[in-house]
Design a protein that fits this description.
Length: 78
């Protein structure tokens, strides 16, 4: 979660126990304004958006968008 109103946060995340070539995706919930909402007229105005994450070895590069909640899903290669 990034609660800052204007600043995105870049992060490099080390993931122990995952092989190099880690596959990961993220779902991020955000809107153009903190006042945007889902209602009867616009039931999908604010929905999670999915994207792939860039990995280098067992590390991920991720930018947490301002005013957002992010879920990261990892795929372990065995």
């Amino acid at each position: 979660m990034n609660r800052h109103l204007t600043r995105d946060i870049a992060a490099r995340i080390s993931v122990a126990g995952f092989a190099p070539g880690l596959e990961a995706s993220e779902q991020t919930l955000f809107a153009a304004s903190i006042y945007d909402k889902n209602d009867e007229a616009h039931p999908e105005a604010v929905i999670p958006r999915e994207s792939a994450l860039k990995s280098e070895g067992a590390e991920l590069e991720c930018t947490f968008r301002h005013e957002s909640v992010t879920v990261i899903e990892l795929d372990r290669k065995n």
